């Protein structure tokens, strides 16, 4: 497959087959969305799909979570003609993610203001620990979470909680959800 070309049939989620099978360290199966960002048509379609539920919403700022999705989040912000604020995985807000490790995240304290409506974006939601911590951080600073968006969200307890409790969007068609949950796409068989 030519990673920089787009097929004639761009059905919903066509670009997800570009996610690369990978591992995170030696313990965690991983799908790497960063290969999507190499193809300009993919990036455009992915951003369009992700933003489709938010077209008539007021969003003042895009807030995206460290690390590999930063390139993608910036495209989301440009598409909305809004600015972008990075949440770094460092101090300020404690949380636990899929690794089970205690982590912290931080954000600039002088940007978010009461009344500001933000779209929170990450590459992936697995346990939901990271996204819930980011929601908490944004709300602690007085801003409002207008929506939560990710390339993919697993149907874990935390993932389902986010789907139900926030205005939410991801790029996964329902028929691919179980493959996302298993971190194994059928399209791997035909990818070469
Ligand atoms: O829902 P959770 O269990 O909290 O996990 C989700 C987080 O895990 C990944 O981050 P990670 O820092 O591992 O990798 P990245 O650099 O690719 O974002 C992903 O990008 C989310 O930020
Ligand atoms: N990119 C990713 N692929 C699979 N599982 C993940 N958990 C967190 N990020 C992930």
Automatic annotation (TrEMBL):
Cellular localisation: Cytoplasm
GO biological-process terms attached to the record: purine ribonucleoside salvage
Keywords attached to this entry: Cytoplasm, Glycosyltransferase, Purine salvage, Transferase
Catalytic reaction annotation: AMP + diphosphate = 5-phospho-alpha-D-ribose 1-diphosphate + adenine
GO cellular component: cytoplasm
Matches recorded under Pfam families: Pribosyltran
TM helices/strands, residue ranges: none
Keyword Cytoplasm included in the entry's annotation: yes
InterPro entries in the record: Adenine_PRTase (IPR050120), PRTase-like (IPR029057), PRTase_dom (IPR000836)
EC supergroup of this enzyme: transferase
Residue span(s) of domain Phosphoribosyltransferase: 45-180
Keyword match Cytoplasm: yes
Pathway: Purine metabolism; AMP biosynthesis via salvage pathway; AMP from adenine: step 1/1
Assembly notes: Homodimer.
Annotated family: Belongs to the purine/pyrimidine phosphoribosyltransferase family.
Protein name: adenine phosphoribosyltransferase
Gene source species: Cottoperca gobio (Frogmouth)
Gene: LOC115018251
């Amino acid at each position: 497959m030519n990673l920089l070309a787009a097929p004639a049939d761009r059905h919903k989620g066509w670009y997800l087959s570009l996610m690369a099978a990978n591992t995170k360290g030696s313990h965690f199966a991983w799908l790497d969305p960063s290969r999507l960002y190499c193809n300009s048509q993919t990036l455009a379609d992915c951003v369009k799909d992700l933003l489709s539920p938010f077209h008539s919403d007021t969003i003042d700022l895009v807030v995206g979570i460290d690390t590999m999705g930063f390139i993608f989040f910036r495209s989301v912000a440009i598409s909305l003609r809004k600015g972008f604020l990075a949440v770094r995985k460092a101090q300020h807000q404690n949380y636990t993610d899929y690794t089970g490790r205690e982590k912290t995240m931080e954000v600039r304290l002088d940007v978010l203001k009461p009344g500001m409506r933000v779209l929170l974006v990450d590459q992936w939601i697995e346990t939901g620990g990271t996204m819930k911590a980011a929601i908490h951080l944004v709300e602690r600073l007085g801003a409002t979470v207008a929506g939560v968006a990710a390339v993919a969200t697993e149907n874990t307890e935390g993932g389902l909680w986010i789907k139900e409790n926030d205005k939410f969007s991801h790029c996964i068609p329902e028929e691919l959800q179980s493959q996302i949950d298993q971190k194994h796409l059928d399209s791997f068989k035909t990818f070469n």
